[in-house]
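Note to self: keep these together.
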Amino acid sequence: MVQPQTSVSRREFLARSSVGIGSAALASLLAGESKGAPSSNDVSGVKRSHFMGKAKNVIFFHMVGAPSQLDLFDYKPILNEHDGKLMPDDLWKDLRLAFIREQPNLLGTPFQFRKWGESGNELSELLPHLGAVADELAVIKSMHTEQINHGPAQVLMQTGFAQFGRPCIGAWTSYGLGSLNRDLPVFVVMNTGTIAGGGNSLWGSGFLPSVHQGVEFRSSGDPVLFLSNPAGMSRSDRGRIVSSINHLNRLRFDELGDPEIATRISQYEMAYRMQAAVPELMDVSGETEATHKMYGTEPGKASFANNCLLARRLVERGVRFVQLYDSGWDMHSNVFPSLKKKCRQADQPIAALIKDLKQRGLLDETLVIWGAEFGRTPMLQLRGSDGDDFKKRAGRDHHKHAFSIWMAGGGVKPGITYGKTDDLGFSVVEDPMHVNDFHATLLHLLGLDHEQLTYTYQGRKFRLTDVGGNVAEKLLA
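Structure:
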């Protein structure tokens, strides 16, 4: 009598073999941990760039609230000569501002400017430490945008679009280039102060698989939420849990092919490996006394300066994109004393980061960017009644028509000024750089063609620069 053939599906076979497979997966996790090897399920591994880029990593400072470029980078002596005079009629006509409603007076700067280094880059007296590394900077004075309110302008600056739902530049970088270290996220975010108005969409993945979103590192407690094991749970216990969960996730992925399931598998495994990698990363006590002095850090104390030091440690370990947000730059009143205070906090550690990267041989392959969502008006915004102390209370409104950013390292031509504004600092008159142009240039420095880096969503191809953007060739080394 012929016995009937018993058919066993792949799914049934895997289910029956779950114990053996779970043990193998745990062994694989532990092996990867010791060797720094990628997981077979990691969907963010190293990918091929479109061409050889100069930059491997990015550190992007977004100064939340928008510092005044006219008091830091774009000196206008003629604006100072006309300080207090009514804004010209032709500039005021049809002008839309966030808060100023009546034709305002012009507002110069009380700060002295100086040309620094061999390049002669001109910076405010508020930035003496940055001035010492001025020969490394490419100062861009011709940025412009369409948005005049913080939230939409921040979203535009980070995602190329003023509405929620698009991937940010860090997520596009992760998608385009992948990881250099499987034990750490491709894209890390650190915040100082309050979260920007654009919220966590500023480091979101939008319609890209969520593996590409930024991972926020916190300044107190677990650097990443739930990184530590609960009381009574060992590392091997956690490993078995991850292996078992991912066994079920793989079965589901085989059935549906959903990329979010692949993301979940990858992220569970990376989180397990991060338990070993992140504590060592965040512990800066082993840095030399000279390094702490250079940055102005106090070991064990959270600060913007500490985040700058951590940014160096992150790129040293292969993190592709480090985004640092620093709040407190929104100065509608008391702009001059407030700017002094913020610059005292930020100038030294940012300059120290550039020096540190250079002396370690990392600056050539690390692109450092400093910027914000827009600039500040060359006109006075004054809250409260007029009086003798009005200059102390003076502020500047949002300005979309012209603002300054700078770049250093990572294939950027050092010691140059790019673009120019008019005599009042109101409009761009030379080499305008729209946010889309900035993004196109950033991707180019990473070896990515902004027109080829696309993702198909809802029936059409999207890109960071979407329908615009040109690479600023004059900036390239």
